[in-house]
Specification:
- The chain is α+β, with helices and mostly antiparallel strands and 198 residues long.
- It contains 7 helices and 8 strands; from the N terminus they run E-H-H-H-E-E-H-H-E-H-E-H-E-E-E.
- Strands 1, 2, 3, 4, 5, 6, 7 and 8 form an 8-stranded mixed beta sheet that branches.
Length: 198
């Protein structure tokens, strides 16, 4: 039996935020942004809420029917312009004003994001720890990649772990060749996928 996927609505916001918070508690990038387990457990959910709200407003959140995994997708146009307001600073102010890494991660990932070509951006994908390795993440990604292939649309993401990078390579993503090394922190791998590469 396949994985049942639906588009999440605003009434799913609490579930999505809890899922992402749980899924990313031990992620290398989340651990860098919020160093210290106690601090991360108290604060991390606010960043996940900000991300979820941004995608509910401008993109799409796919959710497995059992609520164990979700993917946050944003469509990016070829002529995407930077926001008039300082979004990274606004996120920092809303999430954790004393934590400069909240703002820095947004600025650094914005700085490496490809421009000039429309694409689907997989901002985040999370699977609750007890369900990882069951193929839920792959199913979530493949459902969008199938549409990308039909529409001739590339896809982009930043892998936050070496394990994730390997999974994305199996789905046709390729490392862009320019890693993002966070200051005194982990490496992220920007990855691009041309349509029809599976």
């Amino acid at each position: 039996m396949g994985v049942v996927i639906r588009t999440a609505g605003e009434d799913d916001r609490g579930l999505v935020v809890r899922l992402l918070d749980e899924a990313f508690q031990d992620d290398p990038v989340s651990s860098w942004v919020f160093p210290g387990e106690e601090y991360r457990r108290r604060t991390h959910h606010r960043l996940m809420a900000a991300f979820a709200d941004a995608v509910f407003a401008d993109g799409r959140v796919d959710l497995t029917e059992d609520g164990a995994a979700c993917a946050l997708w944003l469509p990016v146009t070829a002529d995407e312009q930077p926001a008039a307001e300082d979004v990274p600073a606004q996120i920092r102010e809303a999430v954790d004003p004393e934590n400069e890494r909240v703002e820095l991660i947004a600025r650094l990932t914005d700085g490496i994001h490809p421009t000039g070509r429309a694409h689907e951006y997989l901002w985040m994908i999370g699977v609750v720890p007890g369900r990882q390795g069951e193929g839920l993440g792959t199913a979530l990604i493949e459902s969008v990649l199938d549409r990308c292939d039909r529409e001739g649309l590339p896809a982009y993401l930043e892998a936050s772990s070496a394990r994730g990078k390997v999974l994305y390579e199996r789905l046709g993503f390729e490392f862009t060749g320019r890693a993002l090394d966070l200051p005194d922190g982990p490496r992220m791998w920007p990855m691009w996928r041309e349509p029809g590469t599976r």
